[in-house]
């Protein structure tokens, strides 16, 4: 049965099930506050609707709040967002599709979901030009254009190569667009980001997702035919790098310390492990941004 394949509360990475210790390890106050609010609302819903007067056949589905929170975490983390057409109406829908929801996420997936309007059926289809051999993993892109903090809220995981993540620069420093393009040859699509330095972790010149994210978020300016002035460019680069270093200094631990913590806890709770990894990826992205600059 489908339910036999669902993770238990201990195996789930959903932050609806996270402890306060897990939330603190995120080292992200806004994300932690958002998850506390989701937990509060879910518990409040259970208390309001699972009272002593509800029919037994409903109440026995979640006699304890812990069971209800687990069920909520399964629904939240296993649903997919899809635009579907019913008649003349096109609407966004959250769909729970048993077994298809077990496909893992990738920013370079080999499959995608397709809504077949005539039969009102969701199909898993292979991307054009892709070949899946026996033993290969089938992957889909859960959600395009979202930062890691959203993936954490919805699914309980983050990615070190998310091309849509953002570094929140708050200063006024900017580098000239021509200087930016001298490092990143951008054709307009994430797949076409290349560079002329050794920023990538792969052997060829393709920029991985973290570098794409860092490049996309670097503040730039351009005003007609005004060329970059080297002294101003050096000053802007120094200010942006210093801001990156200041961001890193505000964390209570370094990425290396977080990694050591992970390695020292092989049996850590899944939510704790996910929280520490999220903090590592945030710090590595900021460090990557300083390198790109």
Task: Give your account of this protein's structure.
This protein folds into two domains: 2-140, set domain protein methyltransferase, domain 1 (Alpha-Beta Complex); 167-292, no CATH class. Helices cover 42% and strands 14% of the residues. It is built from ten helices and ten strands. The strands form five sheets. Strands 1-2 form a two-stranded antiparallel ribbon. Helix 9 (255-264) runs antiparallel to helix 10 (270-292). The longest helix is centred in the C-terminal third of the chain and has 23 residues, at 270-292. Residues 187-206 have low confidence and may be disordered.
Properties at a glance:
alpha/beta, set domain protein methyltransferase, domain 1
By CATH, the superfamily of the largest domain comes out as set domain protein methyltransferase, domain 1
What's the architecture of the largest domain in CATH terms?
Alpha-Beta Complex
The name CATH uses for the topology of the largest domain is set domain protein methyltransferase, domain 1
Q: What is the CATH top level name of the largest domain? A: Alpha Beta
- Please state the structural category: alpha/beta
Shape verdict: globular
The biggest beta sheet, please?
2 strands, antiparallel
Biggest sheet strand line-up: 1-2
Q: What is the β-strand count?
A: 10
**Termini, distance in Å?**
52 Å
The number of domains is 2
Topology as a string of helices (H) and strands (E):
HHHHEEEEEEHEHEEHEHHH
Radius of gyration: 22 Å
Tally of helical segments: 10
Mean pLDDT: 84
Regions with little confidence, pLDDT below 50 for 5+ residues: 187-206
Q: What percent strand?
A: 5-15%
Helix content: 40-55%
């Amino acid at each position: 049965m489908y339910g036999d394949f669902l993770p238990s509360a201990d195996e789930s990475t959903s932050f609806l099930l996270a402890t306060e210790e897990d939330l603190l390890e995120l080292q992200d106050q806004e994300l932690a506050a958002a998850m506390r609010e989701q937990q509060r609302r879910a518990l409040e819903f259970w208390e309001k609707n699972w009272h002593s007067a509800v029919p037994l056949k409903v109440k026995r589905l979640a006699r304890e709040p812990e069971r209800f929170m687990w069920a909520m975490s399964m629904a939240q983390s296993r649903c997919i967002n899809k635009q579907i057409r019913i008649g003349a109406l096109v609407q966004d829908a959250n769909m729970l599709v048993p077994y298809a929801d077990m496909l893992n996420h990738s920013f370079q997936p080999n499959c995608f979901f397709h809504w077949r309007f005539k039969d009102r059926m969701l199909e898993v289809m292979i991307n054009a030009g892709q070949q899946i051999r026996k033993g290969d993993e089938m992957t889909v892109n859960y959600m395009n254009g979202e930062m890691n903090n959203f993936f954490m809220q919805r699914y309980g995981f983050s990615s070190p190569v998310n091309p849509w993540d953002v570094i929140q620069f708050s200063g006024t420093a900017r580098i000239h667009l021509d200087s930016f393009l001298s490092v990143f040859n951008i054709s307009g699509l994430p797949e076409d980001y290349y560079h002329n330095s050794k920023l990538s972790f792969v052997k060829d010149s393709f920029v991985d997702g973290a570098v794409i994210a860092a490049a996309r978020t670097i503040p730039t300016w351009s005003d007609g035919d005004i060329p970059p002035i080297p002294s101003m460019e050096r000053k802007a680069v120094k200010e942006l790098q210093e801001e990156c270093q200041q961001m890193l200094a505000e964390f209570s631990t370094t990425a290396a310390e977080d990694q050591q913590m992970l390695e020292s806890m092989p049996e850590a709770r899944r939510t704790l492990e996910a929280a520490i990894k999220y903090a590592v990826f945030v710090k590595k992205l900021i460090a990557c941004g300083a390198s790109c600059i």
